[in-house]
Amino acid sequence: MKRLLILILTFVPSAQALDIGGSVVINYRDREGTLGLTNNAGNGGFNLSQTSIRLSHDFSDWKRMGVTLTSSGGAEAVSEGWLALGGLPYYGEMTIGRFYKPLGAPVQTLGLSYPALLFHTSPVLGAKVNMEYYPWSWELGVANNNPFSATGSVISGSTAFGRPIAALNTSNKEVYGFLRWRDGGEWGALDVNAGYTFGEFSRTDLATLTALNVLLDSRGRSDRHLAELAADYTYGPFRVFGQYAQALEGPLNLTTWNVSGSYRMGKFNYTIGYDELDNNLRNRPVGTPASWARERITYNVTWELHPSLQLALEYEDNEERITGNPQIQDLPNNAVTLQVLAVF
Amino acid sequence: MKKILFGFSILAVTLLFLGNFVEAERVQHGSLMKARGVVQYRAAGTDRWVTATERMRITQGDRIKTGANGEAVIRISPRNFIAVRPNSEVAINLATVRTERTNEGALGIFGARREVQNVEAGLERGAAVNVLKGLGTNSEFRMRTPVAVAGVRGTIFSSFIDALGNVGFACSEGAVNVTSTVPGGFDPVDIGPGDAFSVAPTGAPSEVAPAPPTVMNEMSSNEANVESSSEDFSTTTSPQQEVSSTEVTAENEISNY
After folding, report:
1. Each residue's pLDDT tens digit, A278-324
2. What pLDDT is recorded for position A200?
3. Mean pLDDT, chain A, whole residue set
4. CA torsion sign, A303 to A307 to A310 to A314?
5. Which end of chain A is more exposed for a tag (fewer CB within 10 A), N or C?
6. Binary contact (B238, A120; C-beta < 8 A)
7. A108 neighbors B235 (Cβ within 8 angstroms)
8. pTM of the entire structure?
């Protein structure tokens, strides 16, 4: 990644030619549980959750680059670094590098938890082609995503399957496709999209995971599928959003869905959402990493003080359970979060 | 997996041949990306104003107006936006696009396709900030006002009409060419980054002068607003994306039951 970053930056003629932007996020979060599906770090205090700087440059009509540097939790990373080559039909581009998959790049001015599921996923390394012919847009890509890394889970960025396998760095390829239709008029606006991802575990991964008791049998299914479907309807100040996703990862069958509604009144946006996360693993042998499931109601109010400054308050009524053995039910993990987001 | 990659490669190559023809000019559709406060919409060919809905289609002939507390952002095409300020009205007079084949391009082997856009917006009253980062060669964007029209390509600029009818333009990036729409008016004027230029209701032009800081700040603010609100510009704030070693430790603790 460093080499790619250096290669891209050497083509930038001068700092003045760079388009610079970014954001700062400050959180106050108080989460009830010490164990949990979602992160409990930074509880009970204000913390600089994340800062990012985005650099972009158009070399020509056909070539542009983007780099995003992110500092989060004391760690710095190049979260994005890509080169986009145009010249394809329908505003089409081929992008190479590190980027977000569709819906993966969070749009900052949305509420904290809206939509909840497949937004906010990790960026991937790969290549993609995307085009747009109103009201359709589509994208096809190949990515180097390791589903067994700590951040490889496809659902909501959360580790639904015990993944203490940081050492497992084999490069697993995945192929994905995404199709979107969105249009609107006096009747409102509707956005419907669907995506599909396919990947395979290597034999080494399967053997290692079996040895670690993550998988019961290395002869089990070695492929990986993710199907996702979402619909988003807006009419005036009202908005309804629904999303469903199912992932098959080896023997794991993971499903998640979300329904949210929001109402906008001036500079305020009020959102309430319900989501569930579940899996098919029950009564796994003792010592096997457990799996998580969750039912959550989220209440959010977001205040846009200024186009570049947003304040959000969110409460999660979050009930989790461990589906392994022993099963542990009704683990409360409620949270209150106050967030300040500034963009520049 | 190799078969999949091979298949994808075939598909990618096939895509490159799609549109292997020059399309006739067609109407280009945009959308209302953002609407805050009182924002109203009037469809082409109608007299009725209705409440605008975010992400509704905006096309040639449509109008958007904002109230005292209203703001709107129109996405004309990828990376091209008009931010409509409060108490303003913008009309999309013309919005067409055609696909042009060229021997230029970064792909080398295949002739590249270029989307050539021809867009004209009309500022009827108030102010608008235009963020145009997706206009390629041969594309045109014009902002028309009662006494002058600004022609731009690949730039960020603002335009306004004050209560007295004076028309003003200021540029943040790129260049703007302003021409008079009044018969016998002034010669075309070019303004660059940091410049401002105004025209009286009579058509009398001012001198090109440095833009006031408030105007420059507003353009910067609206640029950030547009780029943070649009998927056209990848951004990276993940309030919920906080997977860390703490979580893994917790999982390991559970597995020791």
Report:
1. 877 666 555 455 566 778 898 989 898 887 888 889 888 988 777 66
2. 76
3. 75
4. positive
5. N
6. yes
7. yes
8. 0.82
